[in-house]
Amino acid sequence: xxxxxxxxxxxxxxxxxxxxxxxxxxxxxxxxxxxxxxxxxxxxxxxxxxxxxxxxxxxxxxxxxxxxxxxxxxxxxxxxxxxxxxxxxxxxxxxxxxxxxxxxxxxxxxxxxxxxxxxxxxxxxxxxxxxxxxxxxxxxxxxxxxxxxxxxxxxxxxxxxxxxxxxxxxxxxxxxxxxxxxxxxxxxxxxxxxxxxxxxxxxxxxxxxxxxxxxxxxxx
Length: 220
Fold this sequence. Notes:
By secondary structure, the chain is α+β, with helices and mostly antiparallel strands. Among the domains are: 1-17 and 36-51, no CATH class; 117-219, Immunoglobulin-like (Sandwich). 15% of the residues lie in helices and 27% in strands. It has two helices and eight strands; from the N terminus they run ααββββββββ. Strands 2-8-7-4-5 form a five-stranded mixed beta sheet, with no helix packed on it. It has a three-stranded antiparallel beta sheet with strand order 1-3-6, with no helix packed on it. Strand 7 and strand 8 (209-219) form a beta hairpin. The N and C termini lie far apart (165 Å).
């Protein structure tokens, strides 16, 4: 930066005044007193003033331009897909045939053994008390409830326990289905007190015992 000539002259003058070589020889009359500090201060103010005048002016600061905010982004809402509809099948119903008669299906039936029997009557009933050595009769009435007639090959036989006094095997007459036959057996009570059971069985013409019956008594 170039300083103006006036500033240079002032600086040179100050330098001369400050130098001892330039001090005039003393004379009889006192020289006027120079205020060096005042001169320096004046030179400083002059320099500052010149600098202020010649200093480049700062360009005005352009205020920041407000940045335009971007437009609000549009959020795209996805399209919801309607779920598939669930179809519930109607409850099944039974439709009767046109004739109004429901179809009948065959049912399983248990086929019993061909020969069957039941005890229709007994005298005396189980449980009588007999005297020692007492003779008595027992009557059984047996009914044919099987699928065929009994021929003269059917019989009763003693299986276990107290025996009849007259027989151990007794052949039966023919018995038709649904009919009955009467059996009478003679007994003699033993002489030993106790509880006695006489068991019998009905046997068919194949030798199969298909029915059992008994008589129970006691002796005092």
